[in-house]
Write a structure and sequence with these properties.
Helix content is about 50%, strand content about 10%. By secondary structure, the chain is α+β, with helices and mostly antiparallel strands.
């Protein structure tokens, strides 16, 4: 049975699920949701996720919410240990960055974008300041390595890429972060890559 994703096209959290499935060749049924109309907060979707949020994944008898959780599930479900290692250290290195995606990136570039695109009630100055902090940390980290967690692309890169790639939509420029831009271009060059709506064709990184 093909897993079904209840999706909002402009959501980076939904997009990372579609991106991973595209990268690893997993079939995925995508069901658009009227987010502005509040469809996610009414039955039957509110029965699937009482938090009233997307994404929601239904895979047979399994129903899951939260993008990071869904990524881990799909990697294990399809035995993609190359994207989520089973050894303790490798798994921990990947999970570190999934938590960054859930916290620092969500409260930084993602919140700034939500304020600009959707008028969400976020403090945009605080969000942009948080974006600058996490991007600076990522810049230092990526200055000496090609990928976030290991010596190859993993769920860490999938989880963090979408909202960083469209940071400009929240008024956050990536010009000061050449290593981050080079990383974005490496992710975009992966076979099966699926860009976020509004993502530039290239981050303009210097090789």
């Amino acid at each position: 049975m093909t897993p079904k994703l209840f999706d909002f096209a402009l959501s980076g959290n939904c997009h990372k699920i579609k991106l991973f499935c595209s990268l690893v060749g997993v079939d995925l049924e995508v069901a658009p949701v009227d987010l502005a109309g509040g469809e996610q907060r009414r039955p039957p979707l509110s029965d699937l996720n009482p938090f009233g949020q997307l994404p929601i994944l239904v895979d047979g008898e399994v129903t899951l919410r939260d993008s990071q959780t869904i990524l881990v599930y799909l990697a294990r479900r399809h035995e993609r240990d190359d994207w989520l290692p089973r050894d303790a250290v490798g798994e921990a290195r990947v999970l570190e960055w999934l938590f960054v995606a859930e916290n620092e990136i969500a409260r930084g570039p993602a919140d700034a974008r939500s304020r600009m695109l959707f008028g969400r009630d976020f403090d945009i100055d605080r969000a942009r300041a948080q974006a600058g902090r996490i991007l600076a940390l990522m810049e230092a980290h990526l200055a000496t390595r090609a990928w976030l967690a290991l010596d190859r692309p993993t769920l860490a890169d999938v989880a963090c890429q979408p909202y960083v790639a469209v940071a400009h939509q929240g008024g956050v420029a990536l010009d000061p972060y050449p290593a981050v831009r080079a990383w974005l271009d490496r992710v975009a060059a992966l076979p099966g890559f699926l860009p976020m709506p509004g993502q530039p064709a290239t981050a303009g990184a210097t090789p």
